[in-house]
Structure formats: C-alpha cells, structure tokens
User: What shape does this take?
Amino acid sequence: MSFDDWILALHVLSAFAYVGGIVLFWILVVAVRRTDLPEDTIRMGPVGRVGNASVGIGAGGTILLGIFLAFSYGGYNIWDGWIIAAIILWFVAAALGRRTGEAYMEGMNKALELQSAGQTGPNAELGALNRTQSGVVLHALASIVVLLILIDMIWKPGA
Amino acid sequence: MSVLATVRPDSWNFPVFLHVLGAMILVGAVLTGASTLAFARGDNRMLRLGYWSLLAVGLPGYVIMRIGAQWAASREGFDEEGAPEPTWLGIGYLIADIGLLVFLIALIVGGVGVYRLKTGKGAGLLKGTMILSLLLLAAFIVAIWAMSGKPD
Assistant: This one.
C-alpha cells in the first residue's frame, strides 16, 4: 500500500465514523422522544458524547485527509467540480450538525437543571424539549447533506 | 485502485453505494449498541435500547451491506468462475461471514438477556453482547481499511 492508499483508507474510516455518529444520533433522537424524566435524559449523555467524538473525528478526518488527497492523488484536483461540491456540502453539514446539537442540548440542560433542583418526576417542559421538531428537521437535513456527499464521492460527477 | 477514489463505470456505482451505505448503517448501529450497553449500568431501558439498536438498525444494515457487496462483486466480475480474488476482497468476505456469525450470536445472547430483564436478570448476557459488539467494531475497522486501502 502506498502512502496515498493509507491516507485514503483513513479518509474512508473517517467517513464511517462520521456517518456512524449520525446513525447513533438518529437512535438517540428516537429514544429521547419517549422520555420526560430527567434521569432517563441524563443517562443518554455518555452515549451522546461517544456520538460527538465519532462525528468530530469523522468530520475532521474526512475534510483534512480529503483535501490532502485532492492535492496528492493523481488525476484529481482541488478545483474539480465534485470536490468543490463535497467541500461546500461538508460545511453545510457541519453547520446543520452544530445547530442540531444545540437543539438537543436544551433538553439535556433542562434535565440537569431539574435534577440539581431535586425534581426527579416527569416534566412536561423537558418532554417538549426532548421532542423538539426543529432538532429532528435539522438532523434530517444534516443526514441528507451527508448522504449527498457520499453520492458525490461515489459517482464523482464530471470526473 | 481504491473503492472511493476510483472512477467506475456508472453501472457499478449504485451497488457500491448500497454496499457502503449499508456498512455505514451497520457500523453506526454497532457503535450505538456497544456504547449504550457499556453505559447502561444495569438500567433496563438503556439495555433494551442498546439491544434494539443492534437488532432493528444493525441487522438491516448488514443485509443492505451484504446485498450491495454481492451485487458489486457480480458487476465487477469477481464472482465469475476462475476470476482471481484480490486480498482485500477476501478480507472483506471473511470479516462479513465471520462477522455475521458473531453478530447473530450477539443478537441471540442479547435477546435472551432482554427477555430475562423482566425477572431482574439478563444484564450479564447483555454484557456479553456488548463485548461481541466491540469485537465486531474492531473487525469492521480492519474490513474498511482493507476495502478502501486495497492491500496487495
């Protein structure tokens, strides 16, 4: 395996970490909708941190190693249309992902606030925050954009 | 040449896309299952969530991945009689086949564990599912490396 092959393998592994993290958050999005208890909400925190690490490492690895490959890999250039499209989509996905995280952190923060106040029973406001519609829409949009990046990477339109 | 770096004939792209998408769903589900079971600390709701992540998301992901793999291999002529099997493809098949066996064992053990949660037992069995899931994740990393880096 050449150095470029190793970088490509790490780039693809990063993509798997990125999408794997998005899948993890879909499962948490569905799971957290069913609870209005602070304890149950807080219990999902560590799993969310695994997702954050996976998305963070994955997103960082894909963009950095991807740009490296665009310069290094023979036959491709950073100004190729499909590579520029992927970079733009990556930034859109990152922005949507950040806003999704903010939407769901409202529920987690509320749960922590309730727990520190000694309120352990069901809470309607927490339930509403956990069932955030904007969070679901943002996560769906981020997922669609990442799916478009995958399609772009496989079909390479114009290459 | 490498999976994502190659410009392939258009007719190969959809099977490859299906294969990669299924594999990504599988990896995400196993990551979720393993981490949820690891952080459950005996909480039944989290134990069930971890198990159902594997069953309801991971298993369909595996099926999509495997169908895409066979379809792509067929399009690329790897399943023709006498066609040479590259090392990376052999690694992929080996991990997919042994991985399925391990995955099914994890699901059966976990299924019994989830059933026994009703009587206050089963957490130990689900710990076994968590360990098998972590093993699967390690194997998937090797498979992804082999399929994308294409070692000789």
User: Anything to note?
Assistant: Chain A has one domain: 3-155. The longest helix of chain A spans residues 81-116. Chain A is about 80% helix and 0% strand.
